[in-house]
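dude i think i finally got it to work??
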Amino acid sequence: MNSLGRCLKLFALSWFMASAGLAESTEVSEAELRAAGLMPIAVKGFDSFWVETETTLRAFDTVQVAPITVRFSESWLRRYNRDQRSLADRLKNADLAPIVDDLVEEFDRGFAGELARVPDSGQRGLRIQPELIEVVIRYPDLPSAGRKEVLVQSAGEATLILRFTNAETGQLVGWARDRQQTSADYRPFRRATRAFNRFEFGRLFGSWARQLEPQLAAPQ
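look at this
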């Protein structure tokens, strides 16, 4: 992982430990979005999508994706630990660093890596600020936990929030939100492993990127 990714992981983990696992609200109201001059449009794959006009995002020549921040569901860790019979299976805040690490790396590859457009001099740039909040992992499968076989239909779920701004002026030009769970089409159930979790969240991030791409300018 590059230095920026490591800094991001440490920031997300320190935030999580300081707040005892509580997810800070990043929601904005409809009134706030309208006050910013945005209007809602229907975009497949997103629960909510707001822009200045339907062609606003396509007017930018380049796309910059800022480092993602990761925040877990406020009740997830508490509920997860309550359901574990053995103390060895319970997770501590410090155990969450590998999860944050994996999510950041998969997002960089499956979302940011697919959408980023390298800016050239004189081109208008769009900046995307992503946040992954209310994250739930069905079974983390971390080395610090007791080793056991757990079968799941999906690796977990999360809410993605995107803020779109003019990279030069910082003006808000769009906002989007969507909550999804990872694929739930496994029959029979799949064994939950760290590799399985990474793969499934990577697929989810890639799906979001594909749904967003038609709203952006075509690569040059």
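The longest strand covers residues 125-137.
im so relieved honestly
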